[in-house]
Amino acid sequence: MIHEIDEALRRILRGGALPEGTGDVVFEAPTRDWAARRNTPTLNAYLYDIREDVARRERGSYAERDANGIVLRRRQPPRWYRLSYLLTAWTSRPEDEHRLLSGALACLLPHEMLPEEYVPRALDAYNVSLPLTVGVPPAESRSLADIWSALGGELKPSLDVVITTPFPVTPVYDVAPPVTEGVITVRGRDGVPDDAKPRIMRGSRGGGVLDAGTRDGGASNRGARKGTSQDGGAR
Questions:
Q1: Which residue ranges form the domains of the chain, and what is each CATH number?
Q2: Helices (H), 81-169
Q3: Which string of b and e fits 69-99 if b means at least 16 CB within 10 Å?
Q4: Ramachandran class of 21: left when φ > 0, alpha when ψ lies in -120 to 50, beta otherwise
Q5: pLDDT digit string, tens, across residues 117-173
Q6: What is the pTM of this model?
Q7: How far apart are the first and last CA of the chain?
């Protein structure tokens, strides 16, 4: 799933911040060695942090239904993760880098959610939206100065881009077809069956009874069952 989110971010940036196919969008660590090898205008989206969004965690399972509302299978809810990217611009002049960052900010700001056309097809079954934030300060445990220190490079202007995505969880459980027929036995007041032939109850998928007959194909029970009332009279 991570590589699919990478590709979605690449397509957004290439279509908005790098018009006419100029420049590259890469995901390598922006170290000193990498910067020395760079020779074209580049937007670097370095994935520096992956952590679960525990506020979105769900318990239990949920049902997948067909067009008629019939349950086809049950699956565990996905676990959501925040993918944090350090977005930087690399050219030969600071003015051009700022122009690239401005273009990146302009193409990302209109989207509070990842555009539907960029959502990975693997998530179609979940029918969810993927939150996208730009420039929100990172968690206190992840300062940008510490990140640059770990990379061994000099501090540069950057945008913190975070995309929150679900990760499918297995297993998926198939369910049996809906029950459309059952067998019942009618008993009298003393607990003894009134009839040796159990009734077969057939119903629609919605649970409504269509007919009731005996197992050997006898007539349906059209009248009320005869018995003895408390005062001894027939009913």
A1: 2-174 (3.30.2000.30), 181-214 (no CATH)
A2: 94-108, 144-151
A3: eeeeeebbbbebbbbbbbbbbbbeeeeebee
A4: left
A5: 888 877 776 778 899 999 887 666 667 777 888 888 778 899 999 999 988 766 665
A6: 0.66
A7: 69
